[in-house]
């Protein structure tokens, strides 16, 4: 997966397997993409993480890119905010 294509503010949908090996579909707003380690994965191996606001859990989360499948970019939060600030209504 090319992490350089994932932009801040992207709304993403994906299948994620966490460090406990639980697999779920997730939807989140990307905050940043970083290379490093975190508390849930090996401290000796650096990898890419997507830091995002998880829309289902309503909190900030980190997602190991290696554990993401079927990533889809559904839009961008900035486009949604722009649309809402124009006072547009649904037809």
CATH architecture annotation: Roll
Strand portion, in percent?
over 45%
Total helical elements: 1
Which bin fits the share of residues in helices?
under 10%
Which class best fits the helix and strand makeup? mainly beta
Keywords:
single chain, 91 residues, mainly beta, SH3 type barrels, five-stranded antiparallel sheet, 1 helix, 5 strands, globular
Q: Would you write up a description of this structure?
A:
By secondary structure, the chain is mainly beta. It has a single domain (3-85), classed as SH3 type barrels. Helices cover 10% and strands 49% of the residues. Strands 4-3-2-1-5 form a five-stranded antiparallel β-sheet. The termini are far apart.
Please summarize what this structure is:
This protein is mainly beta and 91 residues long. Helices cover 10% and strands 49% of the residues. Strand 3 and strand 4 form a beta hairpin.
Topology:
Layout: E1 10-17, E2 23-36, E3 47-54, E4 59-64, E5 68-76, H1 77-85
């Amino acid at each position: 997966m090319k992490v350089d294509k994932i932009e801040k503010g992207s709304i993403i949908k994906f299948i994620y397997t966490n460090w406990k090996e639980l697999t779920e579909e997730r939807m989140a707003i990307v905050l940043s993409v970083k290379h490093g380690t975190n508390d849930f994965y090996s401290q000796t191996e650096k990898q890419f993480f997507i830091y995002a606001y998880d829309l289902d859990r309503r909190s900030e989360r980190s997602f190991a890119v290696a554990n993401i499948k079927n990533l889809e970019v559904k839009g961008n939060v900035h486009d949604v905010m722009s649309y809402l600030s124009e006072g547009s209504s649904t037809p």
